[in-house]
Amino acid sequence: MYRMMNRKYDVVVVGAGPTGSTAARICAKSGLKTLLLEEQAHIGYPVQCAGLLSNHAFNECEVSDSSVFNTVSGAVIKAGEAQCSFDAGKTMAYVVDRGALDREMAIHCADTGAEIQLKTIARELSRTERIVRVKGLYGTEEIKYSMLIAADGPRSIISRALGIPNAPVYLSGLQCDVKIHGDTDHVHIFPNASPDFFAWKIPLDSEHARVGLCGLVNVRERFLSFIHPYRNHCIHFVSGTIPLGTKTRTYDDRILICGDAAAMAKPTSGGGVYTGIRAARHAAATAISAIENDDYSRSMMAGYEKAWKKDFGHEIRKGFSFFRIRGQISPPEMEKMVQTLSDHHIREIIVSKGDMDRPSRLITSLLANPRMIPAYAVLMKAWFSSMKNG
Ligand SMILES: Cc1cc2nc3c(=O)[nH]c(=O)nc-3n(C[C@H](O)[C@H](O)[C@H](O)COP(=O)(O)OP(=O)(O)OC[C@H]3O[C@@H](n4cnc5c(N)ncnc54)[C@H](O)[C@@H]3O)c2cc1C
């Protein structure tokens, strides 16, 4: 039995990750009575992230630098005998403690006046009554909303309750922090250690790094093989899922879905903090406008989907095509690709046009460059295979 606590909010946000905290903070700041629900007792934990954020992504979080372990200025890609490296000579990305980052974002959210209810899981919805049923610290409750924002991550209960089909792809990821001495300025990428995605080594400081990978199949085996040299030195272990390809629908009657709950992570890197926060901003703007204008029409809700698609939808669409193509490139072909990328002029283009959050411009420039001709055969074959395999 659910207790009716007679609690009613303008906006209820489910999930206190970066997406949910941003949406709730903006709604509360505009004066709306806002409740942020989080099933965990400790915001930010368990961590399910490598904590690599581009400058833009980090700025979108609007936090201090207290969660920052390190900054990096470039990357090294290694495939077989081939290697290429890029260095912008300035900070290109931040390496953060995701637990601490999420916690600071939630604190800012609480400071604006949003109520936060931890250890409370959203379990069911009644769209007709505009009620979310929760279970937690205060037992079972029914909480009424005018607008609901679902930021409840990869396994989104809200999205499932609305009958929205799963994302087209779910990547699995495994990672551990280990003691390693080495390069602190570059992220190291190993595409052949996980041939449908990639593995990484991200420096935390001069003595520690995060090593991990994401993939579609044999992820545990690939991971154990990749971390073999450090297997008995794991300080912190992370496992998680990244939905890719966006959900077919990201809104419903008075409900907006954003971040991993809507499968908005970038398919080229698996990074979802930037897109989640961008979507949260659009969701908050729509919720505020709906409440202020007493307009909960379908076209008002659809405005949210239009806004995020205009902002970064094309990046996800193109990125997803590249994700499919990448999955068709064999390790020897990848070695050839990396050799091609190691050309001095190509590396200059990568440094000048590289943008972790919006990689499509770089990819288009690279493909139009005659120095990429040695890679065309590999890419064309992979493209045909990806089309054939759907
Ligand atoms: C191994 C790995 C490495 C990654 N590395 C990076 C990276 O380097 N950079 C990057 O940008 N992204 C990375 N990502 C992706 C990134 O972690 C996610 O895209 C990001 O966390 C999405 O944020 P979110 O707020 O939408 O969802 P989440 O961060 O998943 O937050 C959802 C919140 O909702 C809560 N919740 C879920 N269900 C309920 C419920 N029913 N009721 C109440 N609360 C609920 C959860 O406890 C959680 O706190 C990585 C992911 C993995 C798995």
What is the number of strand segments? Answer: 18
CATH domain fold name of the largest domain: FAD/NAD(P)-binding domain
- Identify the overall geometry: globular
What portion of the residues fall into strands of 2 or more residues?
A: 25-35%
Question: Which architecture name of the largest domain does CATH use?
Answer: 3-Layer(bba) Sandwich
The secondary-structure class comes to alpha/beta
The string of secondary-structure elements, in order, is EHEEHEEEEHEEEEHEEEEHEEEHHHHHH
The residue ranges in which pLDDT falls below 50 over 5 or more consecutive positions are: none
- Report the CATH C-level class of the largest domain: Alpha Beta
Helical stretch tally: 11
Structural domain tally: 3
- C-alpha Rg (nearest Å): 21 Å
Q: State the major sheet.
A: 8 strands, mixed
Oligomer: single chain
**CATH homolog superfamily of the largest domain:** FAD/NAD(P)-binding domain
Hetero ligands: flavin-adenine dinucleotide
Helix content: 25-40%
Mean pLDDT: 94
**What is the rounded distance between the termini?**
46 Å
